[in-house]
Design a protein that fits this description.
The chain has 23 helices and 20 strands. By secondary structure, the chain is an alpha/beta fold. β10, α11 and β11 form a beta-alpha-beta unit. α10 runs parallel beside α11 and α14 runs parallel beside α15. 40% of the residues lie in helices and 16% in strands. A seven-stranded mixed sheet has the order 12-11-10-13-14-16-15, with helices on both faces. Strands 5-9-8-6-7 form a five-stranded mixed sheet. It is flat, with a radius of gyration of 34 Å.
């Protein structure tokens, strides 16, 4: 040792290797033939579902809650953990978990080969572990994967383990640039752990990474296809399959991978270039709405119908699936993705299943499933088509004929009528999103939804041509975005100020204005109020605030105390325009001196001055 002492590097390496050889037996490794323990990482919303898989369920399993974690420390990179203990040895346990449904949704499967009772001795165990023998001398950087399988707080377990490792200053914790990965599970009063080198960790992550697919949505259909296979449902893959709402082609590719000879893809949107280049001879892409495609495909027969569209379920059933049902062969499966609300999922699923069973009266085994490919807010509807002949039959209950249709179009038409009535009483102006009038705000939100849906349908399809025509027949309708509307209002305001040298709400009623000027002024007064309200709600961008601040005479606070109520708006305004402005401004209070104020406090202040 005296000879090696001057050469510190060689000395430390030699001592560490010597200790590893002599003391490695002190690591409490599980004996040969012992039951294998594994820690599985996944997304937070899939842990409980993975634990219910047939290949996992027969193990001893502990899974983290299917709730989105709050404030995860940076050392923990996965929200979902599953601990399993097999009755077999490690190789057999790993082989049992090697199948597609499991590997697609797990991000890592880590063995825990060592076991200790006291967390305080973990540091000494780590230093003599073979994975750290060749590590950089000095401070060792670790990445952690920890899970408290006893049901206690993961954060508390992480804090306890971190304190133990950092207490003597020999370790640092970081998700990047690490020398080793520590996998630790607390179960039954024991700490099961293992240490992985960066190369081993990278290999595990690579083996559990996602395949190269057109889009991630492909996994949802793969789950459904495997489910049908496990149920023993035979599908004639020689017949083509129907993919409604196919763009960009993830589900189309999954159908071809599953053995279907041909797929008819229906979507006005564009399909993936790479998919069409490699497998275009098996794909017939109809760039049209489902209603048009249904008429064009009459006389053909299909062995499966799938649909993954982000729209209201009633619209999907009525407008997109019903035209396709007469084309299905008897026994053809139907797979449909449903988007669930963030709250009230149980009620929403019950209502969705009730509606689906009415519209899809010719389907059997119609049920809703939460596959691993579904997100926390998605479900998959699966059924088998058994109705021979001409499509959907009329359902009968208690011998009384009943027709069921989910007329969402009537609700849309009612909203359009409300908008038409509002616009006609406001000089042909559309409602403003940040008005102080609640009714106007609700109509403005409806207008914004139509603009967004129309924009998305231009890319992916699915919006009714009749709706577009119903809106565009009005001269006041515009597909302009909120940014375009703001710029239009700002230009009108700047033109007004340039011509009148004041803001529109600073002109006296006595001023003589033409009718068109009066209407423009009423619009600009409402527009200014909406912009001030948007800033008050912190809903205005800094860019828009800067543009308004740069406009001449602009002010965020109108000084009501300097202007009597008779000098705010022109006397020639129509009564309905006064009503709209009053609603936008809110209640105004009059002082005995003749001044009007927005709030009662200002009135009381003015009265105190007079007193």
């Amino acid at each position: 040792l005296k000879i090696l002492a001057p050469r510190r590097l060689v000395f430390e390496v030699s001592i560490r290797a010597f200790l590893c050889i002599m003391v490695s037996f002190s690591i409490c490794e599980q004996p040969p033939g012992a039951r294998a323990s594994l820690l599985i990482t996944c997304s937070w919303d899939r842990a409980a579902r993975i634990a219910e898989l047939p290949a996992v369920k027969h193990f001893e399993v502990r899974a983290s809650r299917s709730l989105q974690p709050e404030g995860l420390p940076k050392e923990v990179t996965h929200g979902g953990y599953i601990w399993v203990r097999s009755s077999s040895e490690l190789p057999q346990a790993m082989e049992a978990l090697s199948y597609s449904s499991f590997e697609r949704y797990t991000t890592g499967v880590f063995p825990t080969r060592y076991s200790i009772k006291d967390v305080s001795v973990l540091e000494s165990q780590l230093l003599i572990h073979p994975a750290l023998v060749s590590a950089v001398l000095g401070t060792v950087v670790l990445r952690l994967h920890v899970y408290d399988a006893d049901g206690h707080s993961n954060a508390e377990f992480l804090s306890e383990l971190s304190s133990t490792l950092l207490e003597h200053g020999g370790f640092e914790l970081s998700p990047t640039g690490f020398h080793a990965v520590l996998v630790a599970v607390r179960i039954g009063g024991l700490l099961e752990w293992d240490l992985l080198s960066p190369a081993d960790y990278a290999m595990i992550k690579k083996c559990n990474s996602e395949d190269s697919v057109v889009c991630r949505a492909e996994h949802k259909l793969k789950d459904a296809l495997e489910f049908l296979d496990n149920r023993g449902i035979v599908v004639d893959r020689a017949l083509p399959a129907l993919d409604v709402g196919s763009s960009p082609g993830g589900w189309t590719e999954a159908l071809l991978d599953h053995g279907f000879a041909n797929v008819v893809a229906i979507d006005p949107g564009k399909m993936s270039d790479s998919l069409m280049a490699s497998r275009g001879q098996q794909i017939q892409h109809l760039e049209m709405q489902a209603q048009e495609a249904g008429a064009r495909l009459q006389g053909q027969q299909f062995s499966m119908l799938v649909c993954d569209v982000n729209k209201d379920l009633r619209m999907i059933l009525n407008d997109m699936l019903l035209p396709m049902l007469p084309l299905l062969a008897i026994g053809a499966p139907l797979v449909l993705t449903m988007k669930m609300p963030k709250r009230g999922k149980t009620h929403a699923m019950s209502e969705a299943l009730k509606h689906a069973r009415i519209v899809l009266a010719g389907c059997e085994q119609l049920e809703i499933y939460h596959f691993l490919g579904n997100t926390a807010h998605e479900r998959t509807l699966v059924g088998i088509w058994r109705n021979a002949g001409n499509g959907v039959e009329e359902t009968r209950r208690d011998g009384v004929k009943a027709f069921y249709s989910f007329d969402i179009e009537s609700g849309w038409q009612a909203s359009l009528l409300s908008l038409e009535s509002w616009v006609s009483s406001n000089s042909g102006q559309l409602p403003m999103l940040y008005s102080r009038d609640k009714a106007e705000r609700e109509l403005a939100k409806w207008v914004l939804r139509q603009t967004k849906q129309h924009g998305s349908s231009s890319l992916r399809g699915g919006w009714s041509v009749d709706r577009v025509a119903s809106l565009e027949r009005h001269s006041w309708w515009s597909w302009a975005s909120t940014q375009d509307e703001f710029m239009t209002g700002l230009r009108m305001l700047q033109d007004w100020v340039a011509a009148n040298d004041c803001l529109p709400d600073q002109v006296e009623r006595a001023t003589t204005l033409h009718d068109d000027c009066q209407e423009r002024r009423a619009f600009l007064a409402r527009w200014m109020i909406a912009q001030r309200h948007a800033k008050l709600l912190d809903s205005m961008t800094l860019e828009h605030q800067a543009m308004l601040n740069a406009s001449p005479h602009w002010t965020w606070q109108f000084d009501w105390s300097n202007h009597p109520g008779s000098c705010i708006f022109p006397a020639t305004l129509a009564s309905n325009q006064y009503a709209a402005i009053d609603r936008a401004l809110g209640p105004r209070f009059e002082c005995s001196c003749g001044l009007f104020f927005v709030c009662r406090t200002q009135v009381e202040t003015c009265r105190e001055k007079h007193a």
